[in-house]
Amino acid sequence: MFKLLGALNNFLGLILALVVVSLLGIGGWLGLRSYYADKWAIEETQARLADQQAQVRGLTDKLQHKQQEVDQLGKQLAESRQKVQRLETAIKLLTVDHRVAEIDVLAQQGSAEAGDLVTKFSFVEVNEQGQPLEKPRVFTVSGDLLYIDAWVVKFSDKAVESGDPLRSTSVCLFRRLFGEKQQPKEGFQLDEAGAQPVAYRSGGKPSDFERQLWERFWVYANSPAEADKAGVRAAHGEAPSIKLIPGKRYRIELRASGGLSVVPEDKPVETSGPKL
């Protein structure tokens, strides 16, 4: 009897041990499964994160590339605008006439037939608004044909387009006035050779460039290499003439790309009568 109870007790102990071992095995398996499941989940999350980061880097690279393209297009647009502005400026400067002086015919007496015709007139340099830059000077010439002797400097297209205050237009220096019966050397002196023209005086001393422009005028006129260094396209004298009519005003204009023009105005000038 005791043997049977002992055997049964041993059997139950074995069963209990097996159950315990099974429970431990199941718990361990469940633990390992949970561990590896978490590990696999982390690895999968990390893989997705790495993939997303790679996508972000790819998109960032594309964005940077697009930004570079935008910056390049912006730069090209800015350069194009500058070219357009330079072109517009050049067109404006090359087509606008600048008023530089006025001549008023004050009186005239005698006749060409009798050979005693004389004409009295005033000359004054003016700004672009027609305001005198000096006190008008009055002269009298034999006859009625007047010559305006001037030195004219024309700058290169590049210099004109740059918009420099002095180089943005042709410039001139009035040398003298003389009638048809006078020798040029006997004419009435205006601006002195090498001096700063009235129209370009701003109250201060002339710049080195301005001074050299007139001091080296004939050097530029005769040396293309020296003229090119100074941005000068041409330098030469001009002497347009006009037949003076009593009571008329004539404006002398200077085109940015050209020379002098004498244009009559409709505005009548008060004359001083037949006596000179």
Task: Describe this protein's structure.
The chain contains 5 helices and 10 strands, in the order αββββαββαααββββ. The strands form 2 sheets. Strands 3-2-1-9-10 form a 5-stranded antiparallel β-sheet. The N and C termini lie far apart (173 Å). Helices cover 43% and strands 26% of the residues.
Highlighted features:
5 helices, 5-stranded antiparallel beta sheet, about 280 residues, alpha+beta
List the helices and strands and how they pair.
Blueprint lengths: L1 H94 L1 E13 L8 E8 L11 E6 L2 E11 L1 H5 L9 E9 L8 E2 L18 H8 L1 H6 L1 H6 L2 E7 L2 E3 L5 E7 L4 E6 L11
Antiparallel strand pairs: 1-2, 1-9, 2-3, 4-5, 4-7, 4-8, 5-6, 9-10
Quick structural summary:
It contains five helices and ten strands, in the order H-E-E-E-E-H-E-E-H-H-H-E-E-E-E.
Radius of gyration: 48 Å
Classify the oligomer.
Answer: single chain
Low-confidence stretches: none
Largest sheet: 5 strands, antiparallel
Structural class, please?
Answer: alpha+beta
The coarse silhouette is rod-shaped
Alpha plus pi helix count: 5
